[in-house]
Amino acid sequence: MRRHWISASPQLSLYEAELLMRVAGIRQVPVVSDDALVGVLWHQSLLRTALETVLEHPLELVKDLLARLPVLEVMDRNPLTAAPSDPLIEVARRMVEQHLGCLPVVEAEGDRVLMVGLVVESDLLRLAYAPSSAAPA
């Protein structure tokens, strides 16, 4: 899992989130508030919302409308997650079965769910195709 990742706040606008995703070259972004995972914004959800907005309004208003719409309105509020102790094969199986590009790794701290890592599909591919000497024991 990655111990460093890009995240968004729930108040970030969809316009800013789309720019963030494009610049970072990612298709999903964990939504984190005070170190706690509160959701995941999927690029597909962002695009769907943008298309619906475009179809409802003249094109010149779309940027302004998306700039006022926070990530909180579009994010997945109950994303699937993994625990640090979950076996990698189980994490990979969940990602494949659910067609997920990423799986946040979280630990419970009281009533909060703290994000401690992120597994993305490219991490799994890198591991699968790494020379056998580079694979973890």
Can you give keywords for this protein?
globular, two-stranded antiparallel ribbon, alpha+beta, single chain
Commentary on this structure:
There is one protein chain. By secondary structure, the protein is α+β, with helices and mostly antiparallel strands. It has one domain (14-134): CBS-domain (Roll). The protein has 5 helices and 4 strands; from the N terminus they run αββαααββα. The strands form 2 sheets. A two-stranded antiparallel sheet has the order 1-2. Strands 3-4 form a two-stranded antiparallel ribbon. The radius of gyration is 16 Å and the shape is globular. The two termini are 15 Å apart.
Largest sheet: 2 strands, antiparallel
What radius of gyration results from the CA coordinates?
A: 16 Å
Query: What is the count of DSSP helices, taking H or I runs of 4+ residues?
Result: 5
Count of distinct structural domains: 1
Level-2 CATH architecture: Roll
Relative helix content: 25-40%
Task: Please give the CATH class.
Answer: Alpha Beta
The count of β-strands is 4
Strand percentage lies at: 15-25%
Q: What do we call the CATH topology? A: CBS-domain
Gross morphology: globular
- Average pLDDT level: 87
N-to-C span: 15 Å
Q: Which class of secondary structure composition applies to the elements?
A: alpha+beta
Looking at CATH, the homologous superfamily is: CBS-domain
Strand order of the largest sheet: 1-2
Uncertain spans, ≥5 residues at pLDDT below 50? none
Order of helices and strands: HEEHHHEEH
